[in-house]
């Protein structure tokens, strides 16, 4: 059940005045009766209790059949979902011919969805243009997985799957009260990263006069992360009351600010900046390529020892370079 005030439901930021009929296709402008997701064929099914589950499928965004795995690991423990780009976990579909993985939930995503972040219907897509990646409007992150995009007129609003799963209300462990989605955020700043928000930004805000607000990027950070040199999971932490002299990132070996969020392992007493724990490009899949106007060759995303996290490699014989994500924007002045 969904309930909203009339004024909230008809806000121009989230509603364009149209009333959609059930089964209405925005692009064809008519009511259609067709599969609601991008699974084009169920090749094989198995019975689990009273349920029939698709154990082998054909999916619109992959050329080969995908088989379902309920338990165990992939051949490469670092495998990532090609839909949400998060680490793969069961149940998932995989291709036996290439390194393509989809969480079962990602494979079953609907073709089209409305969302309170945007006033138009959004369509699921896996294309990213010439560069091979997208910047997303809600969270401002770089992403290579599936996305939902607006095709209404010249509107090009895009949102990744993780943000698409967020709702209008959020209960976050960083704050005692429930947070509510707001569209008018100009003049405020995020309580986690202190970024100044603009009028176009959406964010989650406490309505109990706490002045607590989270931008979408911080609101959707994973609550735990794994760092390759630590056997224990790191937990997202929101405040550190240690002595100022103890506020260091154990990887970057630089001071941390006490009010900025960080990842922490209590067993190992390790503290890391957010980007040091999850990487500069946590939503771009290792091994994928992308282009930038700053360099003449495409880069490959790799796990770099030199760069402490994701590195960008140009493997062309006349280059053979490895750089950070931030450093690649200076390549025009270097090469």
UniProtKB/TrEMBL annotation:
Signal sequence span is none
Domain DC1 stretches: 61-107, 173-219
Work out whether the entry's keyword set contains Nucleotide-binding: no
Q: Which keywords does UniProt give here?
A: Repeat
Q: What's the protein called, per UniProt?
A: DC1 domain-containing protein
Q: What is the lineage of its organism?
A: Eukaryota, Viridiplantae, Streptophyta, Embryophyta, Tracheophyta
